[in-house]
């Protein structure tokens, strides 16, 4: 309940703090922010306890609490955004073989069921030049040309998944590069046979995750939202 209120206050504060979006709707959100902030800080900030009460008989206290509510909402916004900034993200792609074999839903569901959050998704046919950029660190390898031809041979599902430890654990869900060596239970272990057709890509570390997300997505294509399941996945309820 408290985190819901914080989120609503933070959302409203975000509207209020973004100058170009001023409208009556924004001010309505602002009132909601103030109210939500006041409610959620009740008990922590003494002046806020009487916010919204008309029967207190003490107008100045009501005014002070109203004045404090917005900074409080802004503070909670910072807190929430700091938390969001900490939340790890990784780039995951279903390669043309995975798409053609009808494995999109199967692969997505493994990440989804684990408890990770999908924050960006699109279907694209990368050009060969784009594939070369994506695999630039492998350009000296003998299979580089064939690999780039393959990645650009058809539609790819490009995604960004978010969650605690998602980079490393995403790689665990995917399994070893060579499906002959991937454990059963992993995506490649269960669904692929040879290294040249191993159906899925996943970033291998924080730096590559950042670079790959930036290569495949514009910032506005990443969606910040609260998933209702989060409080059950992370135990904040
Ligand atoms: P991963 O995809 O597990 O991160 P990688 O980055 O070493 O593995 O290689 C990228 C892709 O290149 C890999 O998914 C499949 C292909 N590949 C790797 N080694 C290969 C090989 N020996 N022969 C053919 N293709 C290979
Ligand atoms: Mg790799």
UniProtKB/TrEMBL annotation:
Its EC number is 2.7.4.6. It comes from the Eukaryota. GO terms for molecular function: ATP binding; metal ion binding; nucleoside diphosphate kinase activity. Keywords: ATP-binding, Kinase, Magnesium, Metal-binding, Nucleotide metabolism, Nucleotide-binding, Transferase. SUPFAM superfamilies: Nucleoside diphosphate kinase, NDK (SSF54919). It is found in: Plastid, Chloroplast thylakoid lumen. Residues 87-224 form the Nucleoside diphosphate kinase-like domain. Its cofactor is Mg(2+). One of its GO terms (cellular component) is chloroplast thylakoid lumen. ATP binds at residues 95, 143, 171, 177, 188, 198. The active site is at residue 201. One of its GO terms (biological process) is GTP biosynthetic process. InterPro entries: NDK-like_dom, NDK-like_dom_sf, Nucleoside_diP_kinase, Nucleoside_diP_kinase_AS. It catalyses: a ribonucleoside 5'-diphosphate + ATP = a ribonucleoside 5'-triphosphate + ADP; a 2'-deoxyribonucleoside 5'-diphosphate + ATP = a 2'-deoxyribonucleoside 5'-triphosphate + ADP. Major role in the synthesis of nucleoside triphosphates other than ATP. The ATP gamma phosphate is transferred to the NDP beta phosphate via a ping-pong mechanism, using a phosphorylated active-site intermediate. Shows the highest specificity towards GDP. Belongs to the NDK family. PANTHER family: NUCLEOSIDE DIPHOSPHATE KINASE (PTHR11349). Homohexamer. HAMAP family: NDP_kinase. This is Nucleoside diphosphate kinase. It comes from Actinidia chinensis var. chinensis.
């Amino acid at each position: 309940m408290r985190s819901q209120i914080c989120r609503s206050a933070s959302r409203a504060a975000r509207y209020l703090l973004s100058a170009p979006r001023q409208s009556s709707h924004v001010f309505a959100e602002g009132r909601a922010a103030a109210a939500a902030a006041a409610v959620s800080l009740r008990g922590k900030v003494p002046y806020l306890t009487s916010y919204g009460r008309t029967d207190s008989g003490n107008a100045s206290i009501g005014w002070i609490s109203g004045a404090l509510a917005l900074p409080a909402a802004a503070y909670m916004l910072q807190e929430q955004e700091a938390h969001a900034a900490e939340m790890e993200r990784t780039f995951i792609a279903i390669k043309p073989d995975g798409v053609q074999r009808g494995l999109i839903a199967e692969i997505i569901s493994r990440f989804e069921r684990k408890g990770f959050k999908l924050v960006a998704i699109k279907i694209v046919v990368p050009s060969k030049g784009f594939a070369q950029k994506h695999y630039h660190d492998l350009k000296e390898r003998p299979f580089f040309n064939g690999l780039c031809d393959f990645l650009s041979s058809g539609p790819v599902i490009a995604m960004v998944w978010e969650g605690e430890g998602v980079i490393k654990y995403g790689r665990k869900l995917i399994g070893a590069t060579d499906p002959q060596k991937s454990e059963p239970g992993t995506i490649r272990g269960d669904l692929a046979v040879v290294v040249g057709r191993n159906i899925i890509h996943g970033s291998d570390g924080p730096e590559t995750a950042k670079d790959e997300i930036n290569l495949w997505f514009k910032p506005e294509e990443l969606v910040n939202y609260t998933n209702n399941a989060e409080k059950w996945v992370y135990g904040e309820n």
